[in-house]
Amino acid sequence: MARWVTLVPTWTTEAVADTTSLTDAKHHTIQGGSTTQVGELRRVYASGQAAASAPQIMVCGRSSQVATGTLTAARNAAVNPATAALAAPPLPHTGSATNKVQRSATLGMLIPIGFNAYGGIVNWQPGQDEIVSYLGNAASFGELSINCFTGTTAAAVMTEMTYETL
Q1: Strands, DSSP E only, in the chain?
Q2: What is the CA angle 113-139-4, rounded to 5?
Q3: How many helices and strands (H and E) does the chain possess?
Q4: Over the stretch 92-103, which tens digit does the pLDDT of each residue have?
Q5: The total number of structural domains that make up the chain
Q6: Which of 17, 82, 148, 160 is the most buried (most CB within 10 A)?
Q7: Are 42 and 110 in contact (CB under 8 A)?
Q8: Cβ contacts of 160 within 8 Å, gap of 6 or more
Q9: Element (H or E) spanning 166, and its range?
Q10: Which residues pair with 165 in a beta bridge?
Q11: Which residues touch 109 (CB under 8 Å, ≥6 apart)?
């Protein structure tokens, strides 16, 4: 087992309805590296960088359509420097060349991370029996994303997900 951190230092949020393609660079997503890979979220962190009040109706959840084609990579690093390289590493990203990420209407709101981007922060860590995981790299369980729901005011934010591959 290895823990990894994926980070997007700054991205601008955008309000998007369920089952609608997310705009590139307007979400933070992690996709499994193979059809059988299992990963678990250990932390979701978001902080606001707005210059004025900007309510964020953000969620972390699963995708009904996963990204395909060339993915725009997000930063990703092993927590422990002695971690061995994975044969099929997970794919943290912020965009894709072909199919775009779509938040699932039924599985797309697993972790609420609403806050005011004018200095607000959210730090979610699961309880022992509250682990959120991904399985494989296909819809609807192989991808987890942080994105904004309708009603969100566009603002700059930073997001980070710590995850563990099993």
Answers
A1: 2-12, 28-31, 38-48, 55-56, 58-65, 71-73, 75-78, 91-96, 102-103, 111-112, 115-116, 121-124, 133-135, 143-148, 156-165
A2: 55
A3: 0, 15
A4: 999 999 999 999
A5: 1
A6: 148
A7: no
A8: 5, 6, 7, 8, 43, 44, 45, 46
A9: none
A10: 2, 39
A11: 59, 61, 103, 149
CA distance 86 to 10: 27
Q: Classify the C-alpha dihedral 124-125-126-131 as positive or negative.
A: positive
Domain that holds residue 36: 2-80+88-165
Alpha-carbon dihedral sign for residues 99, 64, 15, 115: negative
Tens digits of per-residue pLDDT, 143-152? 999 999 999 9
Question: Residues 31-73: pLDDT tens digits?
Answer: 999 999 999 999 999 999 999 999 999 999 999 999 999 999 9
- Lowest-confidence segment of 4-8, 20-24, 68-72, 81-85 by average pLDDT: 81-85
Query: What is the share, in percent, of the chain residues with pLDDT greater than 70?
Result: 99
- Give the residue-averaged pLDDT of 137-159: 95
- The structure tokens listed for 79 are 């927590």
Q: How confident is the model at residue 153 (pLDDT cuts 50, 70, 90)?
A: very high
